[in-house]
Amino acid sequence: MSTAQDSGVQTSGPNNFGYNDYVLGSFKFNRDEFFAHVSWPTGSHSISIDNFLRALQRDCAWDFFYGTVNFDHVVGTINHYGTVDLFAGRFNEAYRKAELDHSENFQTPKIRATFHSMLDNWTNSTFDPFASPAETQAPWGVKSGSNTDAVTRRRVAAARMVGVKGDEQIRTDATGHPINRMFADVPQGEPQVFAEPGFEGEIAAFNLFAYLSRSNVTWNPSVVSVCKESLYCPTTEEYILPIVHGNDRVEWFIQLSDEIVWDVADRETGAPRAKVTMRAGDCAAMPADIRHQGFSSKRSMLLVWENNSADLPGLIASGKAPQYPVSF
Ligand code: PHB
Ligand code: FE
């Protein structure tokens, strides 16, 4: 077991399958040909490696996201914005009742460095955890190469709004963003802008559908506009959202094309609460006391609208802000 001085990553290996083992507090992680195995003082759990790497990829790329990222019904993380809880069974009613759940808090840099190292070491050269399963090869087998470029892909984030001068958004075939096979019918025309004299540098418009038609990742919201705490995060979705999100604030969805079915469950227990079918043009708000996971049979476009205010989790926890966007 070695501890890299700067990052605090505790790792050893390679094991019999060629992969490194990791230790984080009293949690242990190792991978074989088919599974990620996680153990902690009161139990252990195995997750199919495709699902595990897809979830780990999102937790890394989103830097632990808003609130809870459930990898499945047992393992996940809670973001406290500076520290992160790693848990097992924390949001599983049966584990809680049996008092087998376990949770440990880590400084964000430590868990971040461990997760980034694990993601890179456990991903083989032919697997892309960000891609639709139809657009990547399989993750199975003994270690064979790596895919660092894919797993360290940066989430696209606009400084102002995509298309506004100074924002370096690249939306052409020439820069490696061809139109996705599922969006071949999306018109590529850009809007014409007629600015009042003197305002030419301050007004811009772009074709969001054309922009999204070129996304080569799935279930990875980009940030196309930032207005104070309002973040517009559109994304393209195919197959299953690889995490089950338990948000610490209300979040809005606008279905821009095609269809997504959401399974909505109680955030604490996982008890099913609703099934929400969203078709193009539908708008929904996810309350702050649930968990949700989306299913998209055909690649679709979704606008996720997040309120980024750091005050919200505290306001909701203290009852000063509601968990629901509207009371009927
Ligand atoms: C969500 O958890 O709300 C979420 C995450 C990623 C997506 C879409 C929605 O691509
Ligand atoms: Fe969410």
Entry keywords:
328 residues, alpha+beta, Transcriptional Co-activator pc4, Chain A, Jelly Rolls, six-stranded antiparallel β-sheet, 15% helix, globular, binds P-hydroxybenzoic acid, binds fe (iii) ion
Distance between the termini: 57 Å
| CATH structural class of the largest domain | Mainly Beta
Mean pLDDT level: 93
Instruction: Enumerate the spans where pLDDT stays under 50 for 5 or more consecutive residues.
Output: none
Largest sheet: 7 strands, antiparallel
The number of domains: 2
Helix amount: 10-25%
Write down the CATH topology of the largest domain. Transcriptional Co-activator pc4, Chain A
Shape: globular
**Protein structure class:** alpha+beta
> How many runs of DSSP E, i.e. beta strands?
18
CATH architecture level-2 label of the largest domain: Roll
What would you report as the Rg, rounded to the nearest angstrom?
21 Å
What small-molecule ligands were found?
P-hydroxybenzoic acid, fe (iii) ion
Helices and strands, in N-to-C order?
EEEEEEHEEEHEHHHEEEEEEEEH
> What is the number of helices?
6
What proportion strand?
Answer: 25-35%
Give the gist of this structure.
With about 325 residues, the protein is α+β, with helices and mostly antiparallel strands.
Structure, described:
The chain is of the alpha+beta class. The chain folds into two domains: 2-151, Roll (Transcriptional Co-activator pc4, Chain A); 168-216 and 218-317, Jelly Rolls (Sandwich). The protein contains six helices and 18 strands. Strands 11, 12, 14, 15, 16, 17 and 18 form a seven-stranded antiparallel beta sheet that branches. The protein has a six-stranded antiparallel beta sheet with strand order 1-2-3-4-5-6. A hairpin with a 5-residue loop joins strand 15 and strand 16. The longest helix is centred in the middle third of the chain and has 15 residues, at 108-122. The termini are far apart. 35% of the residues are buried. The structure holds P-hydroxybenzoic acid and fe (iii) ion. The site of fe (iii) ion has 5 residues, from loops.
